[in-house]
Amino acid sequence: MNRISWLAVPDDTTAPEGVQKLHAKARANLGFVPNVFRAQALNPDTFLAWWTDFNTLVNREGHLSTTDRELLAVVVSGLNRCVYCAVSHGAALREYSGDATFADTVAVNWRHAPLSPQQAALCAYAEKLTLTPAHMAEGDLHDLRAAGLNDHAILEATQVIGMFNMTNRVSSALGFIPNEEYHRRGR
To answer: Hey, what's the torsion of the CAs at 1, 4, 20, 41, to 10 degrees?
Structure first.
């Protein structure tokens, strides 16, 4: 296997049972084990804790659509220039939106994508929270509310944006390489 992280990557056979179960589930659902799983398995307890939080925020029914959560992931990851997350969540946005052109446009410059007013408000909020978090103010919620988002959806969006900012930093700091399979998904 090619190098997927700047740190050591544990062998699948020596990973703890919880990590092996997650790898098996990923193989069944995706057809491969995401490299972010393999790389973070070096510290299995913190990896599984991260996965629980990530999965709860990103992969469940919530107050935002799955497409909108992936939209936020791609915007944040693009702003942070996180190769792993931009590629992997770009693939997810292609699949969930059913529109590769839309997803690719969002990945380069969300302002050029055909967004609904609600999606545009979410992207603008994600951009400000990602690039200038110290400048956030109560007024930043106005555009989200005006676009039809309630407090539950605003909290969820903020948590998703925060999760991707943290995950981007871990992935970029440790040189995580996206799986080749992501480049073909949703095309």
So the answer is: 140
Which contacts (CB < 8 Å, 24+ apart) does range 12-18 have? 12/38, 15/41, 15/44, 16/44, 18/44, 18/48
Q: Which domains does the chain possess?
A: 12-59 (1.20.5.810), 66-173 (1.20.1290.10)
d(Cα 49, Cα 58) in Å, to the nearest integer? 14
For 111-161, what is each residue's pLDDT tens digit?
999 999 999 999 999 999 999 999 999 999 999 999 999 999 999 999 999
Residues in the chain: 187
Q: Is the dihedral of CA 123, 105, 66, 22 positive or negative?
A: negative
Burial label for 19, CB within 10 Å (0-12, 13-18, 19+), is buried
Say if CB 178 and CB 32 are below 8 A apart: no
- Output the pTM of the full model: 0.96
